[in-house]
Design a protein that fits this description.
homotrimer, Immunoglobulin-like, 9-stranded parallel beta sheet, 18 helices, 26 strands, 19% strand
Chain lengths: 665, 665, 665
């Protein structure tokens, strides 16, 4: 929810107060208190105005069951407050202390093979454990009671990266409860799950289990419901803690940090329960399309927030969980941070302030790295802090507006990406990323939307792939086109209903009619490295044996050439509704979507932009970002002031390697 | 057993009654009853004359322990009967209802790591569970009592694709019982397993376990016996149900469907317990040698049946369990179905009639696909049904005769393909397939045979690889050659005795003498992509350091060139006994075997056949099948009538892409 | 410990008595007694003078709990003694009989997932099981009592290839005991493990567990301590049995066989508890650098032994545990055996004497292979036995002296090679091997040393990589350079302290000062196949963003060219201290180290040696070994007698394929 949300909920605005929040996770439990004083000095020099405390503090606050050791946190809160730094206070419930697991093994999750996840890492808690929830609530309550009115406090952060699953016995019980709520009767469950096949009919609720290890494929709707249920159980955990802190801090926003495009949480639903939507973002510096991955996650987070949002975590340098962990080259941290601001972030934060010397993340970079104050990483952080301070007043609270929406939905992902599907080569995330990349390369800024949203404000809506679509969603899409919208739709869309039941005809009839498909005979998934040649493009991953309606307004924009599908339509349009039955190669998909966009009246942010240069408008500011390592000249018709360089720009902008400008009219 | 079996057992003939059985698994539990009426209409239009019912019906018949709900099945049996369609009735014991696992966890299998296989998929039953067997027998009994005399019933089908393993505690008990039966005493077991090595001597039967997870390699004979035992336990399950249904339907044949060349069942032994041998067959439409894989399985099944056999399952289009699941291109379903008939099938059936809309196999094709009646798949099924109707009277019951036998045996496979072997690159199935392919490409039809069979009717016998050979089997081979037969034998043959004990000299002395091998010094397995150059051929996978006997009749047909083995024999012959110490590349193996065959008086079915064209004789019919996508002209000296095209053929036959002809003199 | 050890412990000398020990593991339990007589005949013909008995004899000696069946072993000991063959007697405790696991499941290890390792393989014992230890001690006691004074006995061998882990509950108890011994208090443990991060603070010893399966990364110091603990627990097992046999045979040496460069045991610590250091060595005959791998292990074992050592196991031909198991080509077994002697071995032994016909290792070669007496393998063994007999008196007890030490240490390995590290591509073993290879190819013989050792005797010390270095070790290195030594140090050295705590500045300050590094800004690990171009060399795996001290004596020997690191130092030297921030390609690393060595006064063993020819001095003998398959001419200035060829050599030596000479002045 943005600051100006009409929902009446508090938003990011009050925490921000005209500044871009800048800072990060601060875990000073790791250091002697004398280091804290060095920390706040370096924070001030770097322009840090926000730290997140408490994420991993449970064992320090409650070293024994029921103990409360708040003294250190009192001193810490006062210290940072004394230096003008605000606090995002986290409930420490993502990593319970060892005693909880030892005294209450029922708090530990079990995987599908029955294996326990022990303490010694983090996130070793079961969302379904009543014991865990009770202990989590107790410490949340005491933390909120103590600090809910602390003057340093600007925001509550619940838990951290909710991401656990549980197939154990207590989870089996909550799964049954969730299923009863969803279906009411066993008959309804049997119908929804299609248990008539493979002799899976349930006669007693006690027979229903999470989809544990099986001899052969698990029931797919059971798997789908288990994913829905898991997201909902975690959300229950979040809501329970949120409601506690709200009682003590009714005017402060509450958030929890999403992982970027993470399968475990239906972020559309979760965002509705948050005051501030925040995300963690870690593109690989080695990835030539890392900037586009960042843009995608930023677009998605902004869309979930419906306004300004918070970049809760990024890395100042390298992470430690890839095979080969590269640092960010000089300038990249600044550039990607400004990209987030361009795309709506009002907070640019990091995991973590000071790089650990011990523990599992000691090779994950910090704002202050192992090289310390003299290290390049900190020096660049300091420079960025100064720049964000300059920008603050002019960007915060402003909106980035897009005229194109990409539809994305978790149920479709969960249902579509299971074992026993037509092609394991088709990965939902990669398909969504390919379509977003095409628009990003065409310099067209995109929102993300849920297929049930009101889409009428968008001249163009694209659906990379939505295997599962509910009836209302399909009606929404059809109505959108009838109402004048332009829709481009990729393959494997509208196949299944809400229960993962394949729709009659193999693809929803309303959609077939919309696109002019008479019969969808067969899918022809492609091998890795195999291509489907078509007029004007080459397709990857997938192709289809489609028989088009014989109607004047049904046009094969491109046809397959050669092979079994020779002459059949590859890209089909009926008026403003387009169907793309393959994944065109990047340049072809870009050209296709840019053409359709132009027809729909959607133009690039700037014309004639060089490749690797991104332009984004936020409010009346124009961000221009050079993601290349070579200097570029960019045509920017008009007169501007560059808020970063404090220079005047007339018609032409020079940007160095990883250079950026924020142009104000 | 074929219809004319002298064993006195019933066979396929009565079910067939001059028609090729055409149809498939029919699981109408998935659909409302109004769909059933549409089903029978479409079946009739497609010429369907047989459906398999009940495969996954346990939970529907027995939704609660002890319940019996037969009404729906009564109506269904009557409905199909009323439309002249026969029923193959399956016992539903391959997929127990959830209540069985919940009330009786002892029915669930455990893997070698101790992990349970839960319900929620299928085949979650332990072959060793007394509880499972009791419940399976009870429902079989009641099913047989109710439908054993139903006029629609033509055949019984027991369970489905027996394929489960169990390492759990109850299985440990049945394993011990099986071992006691085999060995009598622990001393005999200790001797057979070679437990003197690694300190594994057993002093009490209670110490003997299935080969569970171990620190390092398991005892190989224990592993071998566990595979023998598993096949036998599953066979016990089969026999128990078979004996029940026979009591109610003494005149009807009983079968269970094999998976094609599946490691879990010794199909030679199983076939002896069946009235009809049936198999499931799913070559990959993408595989350029898919037709050869089909031919191999068909040859093997025909050989196990010693006459006509049943293709119980194939896919009308795609399957759903490969990484990339391709549909069958236009014409391929017909072509491969006719190939099965050519090679002895009297039944061409599918999994499944109507493609599921829910459940784990909804992306496995059906005879009626998601595209429905208008879809290409059903249209082609209908065409095929009409053609099979025309052929029926002239092919059913006829035999396909071969003059070459390929030896294949499960114990050799089980013993030879274990951890700790000379080369993990050597896969038994691939070696067998390579040899079969050589003969298939040479247009020579082959039977498969067990090494203990009477081989005297075959002018040529080939052994791709039989790592384990019993003494009688070796004597049989030697006697075969002495009796005038020609034997070609691949590497890794005759190494181990029945207990997987390496024979003195590293290869059986009788065989060494037969081939003229004085000393087998060392094996030289090859890396992937590595070749052994020889005179006239290149070898793959394997080479050997052999010292040949110095005798006049011992001839090195080909010698290694270069490398460590330079000048040593690669292919050795002594009279009519050939030894091939490497795997020649495909063309070389084809040429070698075709040459030996010619010398043995075995000629191709037709001379001068183009590549990709297969010719097979069944009775007095000549099937000619074009597996290529280009039209071909085939020389067929003589005058024929083509039963498919209803055309006369004189000396020359034109076949289009995937075209087929069935020529009658 | 070598024979002349000043420690007062017995050494190898008395067992050797001027002969190279030649023989191997002898497991005659596998054969009827009549084969034993054939065995000793073949042994005598082959010059075998030592056999290792009892390794896998537990079940045969104690077939039922408490039984003792020694008769067969009495006969065996007497038989071999009667033929003048000495016995290395092993305690049979590496493979307990099945009854132990059945009656005492607490003796079976559990893995990190909780899965049991069952009997049926070998090494299914938990080092922490009090029951196991009690039974192991009892049989060791009785064995030692019976044979401790047998005239055939020359040495005791404890257990076999100690290599087990245990994460189970009894192990949790011994882990806690070990941790209490190490840390004293929980506070100290919490500090060492850095449990303040991720909320892992322990409040009760009972909460501490082995690092079992966790949701995300385990605590790295916990993992490190678990590896230390495992090595120590196994060592406790060894010491307990050693102390028993010493009571009965106070004058005989005791050993246990290491696996070559095996991660599970800190061999520096273990060697201190052994009278004789022995190792098993199995380079892949396919590996073009197999001889170098052998040299590395031999150098390391010699260094651990500080004198002559024992090659306990090698293969006369192939092993059975690789994917593709190649035999040794003609001559290679002899060549590699002589290489071991050149590098200090006084014993050349094999696993095993007669190749098994049954059990899990039947495809592991023996000195007598499946081909028997006529087989090439045995014939070559016999030839080698004769040659070793000739050499014995002149080599045994002599030392091989090196002037270069390579530092290697287990704690550095354990700490550095964990999940969550900068690059999974960096494998410690491969880095060590690359540096050893460079010196081996430069014909410079190397010792290995522990970083805490007195290094002053070595003009040159190289550190391929020591991620963890204790403070004393760092001081030792600095003092070494100050004392006139030359040090070359690879990347990722000196990063962490003893608790795996990253040192301030990201690399130890003393080392940075030593090498002239002002700031270590960032690590830039490289992708597989990616290179860092530098002046005069190409780097692999790794590169670094280093800022050098601006001081006259700090010189960038090579700089990065192009890319982000352009112009920064790649190889830095300050006086005699060199820092190499990447892994130079083989030729470049060889050239670099040869240059530094020359500067330090270290020359190759012989000048102008062809590639593939190795020269090693042992005492006053010069071994020259041709590892190539082509004949070579080697310049050997001076006059020699070749002890192998019984020829005189003047200035020039001709060696055939795999040829060897042992030149005596």
């Amino acid at each position: 929810m943005c600051a100006t949300s009409s929902s009446g909920r508090v938003g990011l605005g009050d925490a921000v107060r005209g500044r871009v929040l800048f800072g990060g996770d601060y875990n000073p439990e790791q250091w002697p208190e004398e280091v804290w004083h060095e920390d706040v000095r370096l924070m001030r020099e770097a322009g840090v105005n926000s730290v997140t405390l408490g994420v991993f503090s449970w064992a320090k606050i409650e070293p024994r069951p029921g103990a409360r050791e708040f003294g250190w946190l009192d001193r810490l809160m006062d210290l940072v407050h004394g230096h003008g730094i605000g606090v995002v206070l986290a409930t420490p419930t993502s990593s319970p202390p060892p005693w909880l697991g030892r005294l209450h093994p029922d708090t530990l999750p079990r995987d599908a093979d029955g294996r326990t996840e022990w303490w010694g890492g983090r996130q070793h808690f079961s969302h379904s454990s009543a014991t865990y929830r009770r202990h989590a609530a107790a410490i949340t309550e005491d933390l909120a009671a103590r600090y809910g009115s602390h003057p340093a406090l600007t925001m509550w952060h619940i838990n951290n990266e909710y991401c656990t699953y549980d197939w154990g016995d207590e989870a089996a019980g909550t799964f049954r409860r969730w299923l009863r709520d969803r279906y009411g009767t066993l008959d309804a469950l049997n119908t929804a799950w299609g248990t008539a096949f493979w002799s899976q009919g349930y006669g007693d609720w006690a027979e229903v289990l999470p989809p544990r290890r099986a001899h052969y494929l698990n029931n797919p709707t059971q798997v789908l419901d288990f994913k829905r249920y898991t997201s909902d159980m975690l959300l229950e955990c979040y809501v329970a803690e949120r409601d506690i802190v709200r009682r003590y801090s009714p005017d402060l926003p509450v958030t929890t940090n999403f992982m970027p495009m993470w399968a475990g949480q239906d972020a559309w639903r979760w965002a509705e329960e948050e005051d501030v939507v925040s995300v963690d973002l870690y593109p690989d510096p080695r990835d030539p399309f890392g900037a586009q991955e960042g843009a995608l996650v930023q677009d998605m987070t902004r869309s979930q927030a419906r306004g300004p949002w918070m970049l809760m975590e990024q890395a100042a340098g390298s992470v430690n969980w890839r095979g080969v962990n590269r640092p960010k080259p000089r300038g990249l941290n600044r550039l990607w941070s400004l990209q987030a601001v361009a795309r709506g972030a009002d907070a640019v934060c990091y995991f973590q302030w000071r790089q650990s010397r011990q523990g599992a993340e000691k090779f994950h970079s910090g704002m202050v790295g192992h090289a310390g104050e003299q290290g390049r990483t900190y020096q660049e952080v300091k420079q960025l802090g100064a720049e964000l301070r300059r920008l603050g007043a002019q960007v915060t609270g402003r909106h980035s507006v897009s005229r194109v929406a990409i539809l994305h939905e978790w149920n479709a992902w969960w249902a579509g990406e299971q074992d026993g599907r037509p092609s394991r080569e088709v990965e939902y995330q990669q398909v969504v990323r390919a379509w977003h990349r095409a628009l990003w390369e065409a310099h067209i800024t995109t929102d993300f939307a849920h297929p049930g949203h009101d889409l009428s404000a968008y001249p163009l809506v694209v659906v990379p792939q939505l295997y599962l679509l509910t009836d209302p969603a399909i009606d929404n899409l059809v109505a959108y086109v009838r109402g004048g919208g332009t829709l481009v739709c990729g393959f494997l869309t509208g196949i299944a209903d809400e229960d993962d039941r394949v729709r009659t005809g193999g693809m929803d009839e309303r959609l077939r009619e919309l696109f002019g498909i008479r019969t969808l005979h067969e899918w022809w998934p492609l091998d890795p490295g195999e291509y489907a040649e078509c007029d004007g493009l080459r397709g990857m991953l997938w192709s289809e044996e489609i028989e088009a309606e014989k109607a004047e307004d049904v046009v094969a924009h491109s046809r397959y050439k050669g092979g079994e599908l020779d002459g059949l339509p590859a890209v089909l349009r009926r008026g403003r509704a387009w169907y793309v039955s393959t994944l065109p190669e990047p340049a072809a998909l870009r050209e296709l979507l840019a053409g359709v966009a132009a027809e729909a009246g959607v133009r690039p942010v700037l014309e004639g932009l060089p490749a690797q240069v991104e332009a984004v408008r936020r409010g009346d500011l124009l961000f221009v970002l050079n993601h290349g390592r070579e200097p570029v000249t960019v045509a920017v018709p008009g007169e501007y002031r560059d808020l970063l360089g404090e220079r005047r720009v007339t018609d032409t902008l020079e940007l160095g390697r990883y250079g950026a400008a924020v142009l104000s009219p």
